[in-house]
């Protein structure tokens, strides 16, 4: 099995709250084949085959190989490991990494990139430009979502599956997804009740927590 780089920003201490949370794939319900979006959404991410700006695996210079913007993918259910990395340069230095992440099979993946940055992606399927507008789902499972785009703003609850080894969620103020952008994050044990409130414009990552439903 090919090993990926560890997630550098999967653990974050948020302000004075002292919340330490780790992102990692745990045992979950059956992977979602709809890209992590549940009832209330009639469409998933556009496939790269339909998008002239779409791309697959590899390393890309933003502004040269791909355009700056927000890209989406539905991680294949048979993916061994989806890895995404956004860097300031192409040196391969840990210090150059702005954001990196692992996403589970069946997840809805999102990444935002700017001119001059580099994007590395593996095991995530085909990427396409993320829609600026669309149906806002009121349920979701695994992945990264824009509040007000993929999912509706509001309060959501979830009961963590009994076989989950780690439920992690993070709410970020923007698409940079770095430590400084995280508003709140937490880990929840199997069987725990999760309760979050999200606002339009925020980005949300959920992993291993089961199905979230709007109240």
Structure write-up:
This protein is mostly beta strands. Helix content is 0%, strand content 38%. It contains no helices and 17 strands. The protein has strands spanning 12-14, 19-21, 58-61, 69-74, 82-87, 97-103, 108-113, 118-122, 128-129, 139-140, 143-146, 154-159, 167-172, 182-188, 193-198, 203-207, 212-214. The strands form 5 sheets. Strands 3-8-5-6 form a 4-stranded antiparallel sheet, with no helix packed on it. A hairpin with a 4-residue loop joins strand 1 and strand 2 (19-21).
Describe the protein's topology.
Blueprint: E1 12-14, E2 19-21, E3 58-61, E4 69-74, E5 82-87, E6 97-103, E7 108-113, E8 118-122, E9 128-129, E10 139-140, E11 143-146, E12 154-159, E13 167-172, E14 182-188, E15 193-198, E16 203-207, E17 212-214
Antiparallel strand pairs: 1-2, 3-8, 4-7, 4-9, 5-6, 5-8, 10-17, 11-16, 12-15, 12-17, 13-14, 13-16
Structure keywords:
globular, mainly beta, 17 strands, 38% strand, 4-stranded antiparallel β-sheet, 0% helix, disordered N terminus, 215 residues
In short:
The protein is mostly beta strands.
Low-confidence segments, given as residue ranges, are 1-33, 39-47
Strand content: 35-45%
Content-based structural category: mainly beta
Alpha plus pi helix count: 0
Radius of gyration, CA atoms, in whole angstroms: 16 Å
Give the SSE string: EEEEEEEEEEEEEEEEE
**Strand order, biggest sheet?**
3-8-5-6
Note the quaternary state here. Answer: single chain
What value does the average pLDDT take? 83
Helical percent range?
Answer: under 10%
What's the number of extended β-strand segments? 17
Largest sheet: 4 strands, antiparallel
Shape: globular
End-to-end gap: 41 Å
């Amino acid at each position: 099995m090919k090993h990926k780089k560890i997630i550098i920003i999967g653990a974050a201490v948020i302000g004075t709250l002292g919340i330490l949370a780790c992102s990692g794939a745990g045992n979950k319900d059956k992977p979602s084949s709809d890209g992590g979006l549940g009832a209330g959404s009639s469409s998933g991410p556009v496939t790269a085959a339909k998008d002239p700006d779409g791309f697959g695996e590899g390393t890309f210079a933003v502004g040269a190989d791909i355009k700056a913007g927000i890209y989406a993918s539905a991680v294949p259910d048979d993916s061994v490991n989806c890895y995404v990395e956004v860097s300031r340069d192409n040196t391969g230095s840990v210090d150059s990494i702005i954001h990196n992440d692992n996403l589970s099979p069946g997840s809805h993946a999102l990444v935002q990139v700017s001119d001059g940055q580099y994007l590395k992606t593996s095991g995530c399927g085909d990427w396409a430009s993320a829609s600026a507008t669309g149906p806002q789902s009121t349920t979701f499972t695994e992945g990264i979502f824009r509040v007000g785009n993929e999912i509706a703003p509001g309060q959501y609850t979830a009961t963590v599956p009994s076989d989950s080894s780690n439920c992690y969620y993070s709410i970020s103020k923007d698409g940079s997804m770095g430590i400084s952008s995280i508003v709140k994050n937490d880990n929840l044990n199997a069987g725990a009740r999760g309760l979050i409130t999200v606002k339009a414009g925020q980005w949300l990552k959920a992993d291993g927590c089961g199905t979230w439903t709007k109240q």
